[in-house]
Design a protein that fits this description.
Elements: H1 17-28, H2 36-43, H3 47-58, H4 62-79, H5 84-90, H6 96-107, H7 111-120
Helix pairs in contact: 1-2, 1-4, 5-6
Length: 121
């Protein structure tokens, strides 16, 4: 009788070491522009292979993962009462309108609205 084994990626708690390093690098540099080549160099992998593996393991391309990190940090800063313009700058968005567009797309409300509701809680 043949025993079926799950691939390592599917085992609970296991994370591909290269992807783990890539995620750590993005967390450390979330507010900076991180080109795929720079990220690939940081983890010693080709950009194409990294992009494919990252998407396979995380479910998002590296840039989208970094955007999520930025937005999570933005929510924290907005809840602390910082202005939308300040938060956009601190979290690495190109400008306030780009930040507002991304925030609205992900959370279905504007950063200003979120700031008001979060500070009332």
């Amino acid at each position: 009788m043949e025993v079926l084994r799950r691939p390592l990626e599917a085992r609970a708690g296991w994370e591909h070491p290269t992807i783990k390093r890539a995620k750590e690098y993005l967390r450390e540099h979330y507010a900076e522009e991180v080109p795929l080549q720079e990220l690939a160099d940081a983890v010693n992998m080709s950009p194409f292979h990294l992009a494919r593996l990252f998407r396979q393991m995380v479910g998002l391309p590296p840039h989208a993962y970094q955007t999520q990190l930025r937005l999570a940090s933005a929510k924290t800063l907005l809840a602390q009462g910082y202005s939308v313009g300040y938060v956009a700058h601190e979290t690495g968005f190109f400008d306030q309108s780009h930040f507002t567009q991304q925030f609205r797309r992900h959370f279905l409300l504007t950063p200003g609205s979120y700031r008001k509701t979060a500070s009332c809680s």
